[in-house]
Write a structure and sequence with these properties.
InterPro entries: Hedgehog/Intein_dom, Hint_dom_sf. The chain is built from five helices and 26 strands. It is mainly beta.
Amino acid sequence: MAEISEFSYTGLAGEYVEIRLPTGEDPSPYAIEIYTKSGSVAALASTIPISSGTFSTDGTYDFYVIFTNLANGPRDAIALSENGVAIDFVAWGATGSVPISGGSLDGTSLTSIGTPLNSGSTTSLSKDPDGNWVEGTATPGSNVVFCFAGEVMLATPNGARRADGITPGTQLWTMDHGVQAVRWVGSRYVTAAEMRMNPNQRPVLIRTGALGPGVPERDLRVSRQHRMLIRSAIARRMTGDSEVLVPAIRLVGLPGIEIDMTDAPVEYIHLLFDRHELLLAEGALAESLLATAQTLAPVPARFRRDIERQNPEPDFGGPLMKEARPILEGKRVRRMVWRHQKNRIILQDLVSALRGKKLAQQL
């Protein structure tokens, strides 16, 4: 059954409503109704079809995230309607009941959940198993993208090429398998307004030389969760592997690595291969798209079937292909990054990483 599964009305997490449906369910009957203070009531301000929201899926549920202005009290509410009939709702900003005017809730009163969020919050509200609204980490939808900004230059056999100019069949250099053809290219355009409302959509900016001498060769922008290769003795001592993959957001705060606060849109480009690959982006090593139930959702069925045939028994909820390198997450990432910073060790020893590799010389 469709439901409101998460929302945020203020704070650093942005303002949005997330709707969750069983995978494959038609979203067209559903709409979000936004109610705001009007005198002594919360009055209907807008109705938004959920199909207009940002779509993602985890293979079990489909998510539609609508980034929209939500007021911060004293009488505000949202409702999910199906063919004009309210099926889920929540009110906040007051200490008692909130009378509703207009929409599918017209003439009713809702009990407010109070004001659990504040202007400095980095959290959102989501439902626990009992249906209660609880504060926690903001994770709108499967709102995770793994991709390059459109202007990023990637290594090909014939020189560097912009990510937004790559098409299926384009040959790119890969660290492990030489020249490989791109199977599928996806894109996601994020407006400046969306980034202001949902700062998690802003890219990470890795400035020239931030990962090591001349790495990257030019400023590099990637999505927050896009993973960069870390190659160092510290990585080997901490994990047993000299090469690991780390989300770019975990590197923010190191010299030359920051959130790009430029108030301009960005087009994110997804590049899928038959395998999880390491690509040379602006002279730095970064991952291609790792196939999971979530990331394959927009991929044409014929490509999905090929990937699934090559990987018939993936771990439940895990990737559908073998990771190019071990993926580091959580506390171990923080400790490893801190040790690199403390000891002033470069993050990506590109010279040794590429030793023996046939890399195009035209870059």
